Structures are given as structure tokens and as C-alpha cells.
Fold this sequence. Notes:
Blueprint: E1 14-16, E2 19-21, E3 25-27, H1 34-41, H2 44-47, E4 54-55, E5 72-75, E6 78-81, H3 89-102, E7 108-112, H4 117-128, E8 133-139, H5 155-165, E9 173-176, H6 184-193, E10 198-201, E11 205-208, E12 224-228, H7 233-246, E13 251-254, H8 260-268, E14 273-276, H9 279-282, H10 286-301
Parallel strand pairs: 3-14, 4-7, 7-8, 8-9, 9-10, 10-13, 13-14
Antiparallel strand pairs: 1-2, 5-6, 6-12, 11-12
Helix pairs in contact: 4-5, 5-6, 6-7, 8-10
Flavin mononucleotide is lined by residues 28-31, 57-58, 81, 83, 85, 111, 139, 176, 202-204, 228-229, 232, 254-257, 276-279.
Amino acid sequence: MATTTDTPPPSIPTTFCGLDLAHPVVNGSGTFDAIAAQAVFGDSFLDQFPFAAFVSKTITLAVRDGNPPPRLWETPSGMINSIGLPNKGLAGYLEHDLPKLAALPVPLITNVMGSTAAELCELVAACDAQDAIRAIELNVSCPNVKTGLDIGADPVSLAEVLRAVRPQTTKPLIVKLTPNTADVALVAAAAEAEGADAVALVNTLRATAQAPGGDGRPWLGGVTGGMSGPAIRAVALAQVTAVAQRVAIPVIGMGGIQRGEHAAQFLRAGATLVAVGTESFRDPAAGTRIARELQRLLAQTA
Ligand SMILES: Cc1cc2nc3c(=O)[nH]c(=O)nc-3n(C[C@H](O)[C@H](O)[C@H](O)COP(=O)(O)O)c2cc1C
């Protein structure tokens, strides 16, 4: 990772759900492995941690192996991933990952997903019991076992789940919305009405790719995946704008952010924080770079 020890860290003091952050740039869940980065870049990496808060990848109750390969497909200006949320499960996360993530120099947000309200309640209650976890993000891009629709695609289904989950924690509860729905602002309004402290969007857009060869076979082991990166930025900006106009709770905006100017556009659209996802695969220090560029832009327009 590029080191810039002589340059002061970016400073755009930001308050989000009671958390005091150095700047408004965080990571998108599942797109930055802080534990692997520390192993590769060493402990000095912690002094230049690229994000103002760290969002864990999605944790589920049981261990998940993820989808069969191939898991990635490059598209013009983006990629489709069909990783399938592999993770150690709640017990593995609490035992192995949490102690390491708790030592990061920024607040920890743990992202969880379940396919029933009962599963989500158990995950959220377990996170609530951990002092190191400062906020909980619900990934609601998961099919409801009763309807088969993603919980977050349907405001009624999401409201039902949140009525059970909200009382399980006093920590800030962020609902990470799916863009794969008819009216994302309606879903955001349902989340707000049921006590969400913030919403985050966009998750990836459902997409697929055919294998080279012309016989129409799907390339991805999981058949469909989620599209991310610059190709989805305009869609994300439209959805963040619509949601920020609809709800009074803070919004975390993401989708294809690569530069400070993109982050500024999401903030102008009404986001309080922005998240960087796919860009971190190209540039692991993208969070710091984007925050610096944003700070320069804000200074010019002040
Ligand atoms: C490889 C990969 C893994 C992801 N894993 C998760 C995840 O575990 N949980 C989640 O809520 N979102 C996950 N996402 C979605 C991102 O957090 C983000 O919402 C999305 O990629 C849009 O931002 P971007 O265009 O900057 O990547 C993942 C995205 C990618 C590309």
C-alpha cells in the first residue's frame, strides 16, 4: 500500500448515529478484508487505515462455503460477483475475527444477514452483547423463506422483520437496502418507520454473464451475481437521491465511487457517509485517497 506518512490524515469531522468519525468515507461490506490487509501490509497499516469506520463482510448464523466457482466476471466499467457470502458463521466471527477487528483504529460496524426474523434476531442480539461492535448493519438482500422474495425488496416483509429485530439492540441499526426493487424509497421509508437508525445503499444490482463459446451456458457458478463498480454509479446516485429525499434518518451512499468528486456527488444528493467498494480492489488505499480528494473539494467550495 502506498505510504504517505508525511501527509496528515484526511480530516472532515463527521458524526454518524452518535459515532464521531474523522471523515465520511467507509468501506462497502465485503469489499475490504482488514485482517488480510494487516497481515500483508503489517501493523503500520493501522496508522494509515483507509476508512473512517470499518464495515465487516456479511456474517450469517451458520458457516457458509459460498458459491461454486467461477465467482467473478468483468463487465465494461464494473464486475459481477457471485461470491455467495462465504463466512465463518456467527460463532467463528465472534471467536476469530472480532478480537482482530476490535483492534482496528476506527469504529466497527458488523453486517449480518438471515433469511428469517428469528435468525436475524439471534444475530443482532449477539452483536448487541459485544462492546467492540459500535453499530449493526442488516443486509436484507436475502430471500424471505416464506415469500421467496428478497426481504429488502418488499416494504411489508422488511417492516415485519424489523418489528422483531429492532428491540434486540440499542446500538445504531443500519438497514442496507437492495437496489433490486420497484421503489427503493418506499422500502427506506418502511425501514425508518420501524426504527432503523440509518439506511445504506446500494447493494449490487442482479446480473448474469454467459460463458465464452456461444452455447448460452452461464459463466458464474451461482448463475446470477451482483454487479458493482463505476457502471452502476448513475443508478446508485438516483436511488440515493430518492431515498435521501424520502427519509430523515442518515443515508450511507455507495455504488461505483472512485474519486473524491464522486463522493461529493453522493453527499450533495443527501448522503451523510459514502462507502467505497469495488475501487478498493484496484487501490487498497482508495478510502484515504478519496477522503483527501473530497477534503480538497470541500475546501475549494467553502
Ligand atoms: C466482491 C464483493 C463482495 C461483496 N460482499 C458484500 C457483503 O458481504 N455484504 C454486503 O452487504 N454487500 C456486499 N457487497 C456489496 C458492496 O458492499 C457494495 O454495496 C456494492 O459493491 C456497491 O458498491 P461499489 O460499486 O463501490 O462496489 C459486495 C460487493 C463486492 C464487489
